[in-house]
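User: Hi! I'm working on a homework problem where we have to compare a predicted structure to a textbook description. Could you give me the structure for the chain below?
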Amino acid sequence: MTWEIAMESNFVSPNRAATQLGAPPTVAEALLRVARDPVGQLLRKWNWKSALTSSLFRAPIFFFANLSAGPKAAVGAFLAELVLRSATSGFYGSLTESIREAEPAWLAGLTAALFMPLANHSLELLVHWLRGTPKLLHSIVASVCFTAFSTLFNLYVMRHGALIVGENRQSFAQDMRRMARLVIGFLAAGPLAIVRLVKRRGTRAFPLRREPDWENEAG
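Assistant: Happy to help. Predicted structure tokens:
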């Protein structure tokens, strides 16, 4: 579990409300809370920030992936993805926000990374298949790759209080002002986890030996 501890130290948020109120929930407890109150957790806390950012980033992916099939096909795929993400990404963002305080952080990240793509792209594949998006395979593959990155990034920034719409939220403008620093922190999280892992293993492999007490031995 050493690598998990290393990732935990990089994903931890410095200002989680849970640390102030008591023990943070486990991932299972956070998901159970959503299952018990889906209206309150997903509909009332619909994350419009996630809907906005996801639509702006994902629609161009489908546009350029289908551009070789012609401008009409590219625009059609663009509009379909824009509408789809505007309607659904707020719910995915709410779900990510619901586990942002869950511990351990590595399990929350793994859960988001595995569950979100499944929920995201099953519906996405169906919608674009039904409308006849020409470069469907290229589009979905590019979208899946983006999801793998964006889901972990969203969880990271939400654990640091950005792009959330619930308690302790800030304005979207304030979130954007912090974004450059958060991006750097997210990109550094992986390398820092590796460095800490190496240090931990190095310490175990070469434990520091206690120096002999020459004075007591001489006495």
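For your comparison, note the following. The first helix runs from residue 2 to 11. Residues 26-171 form one domain. Good luck with the assignment!
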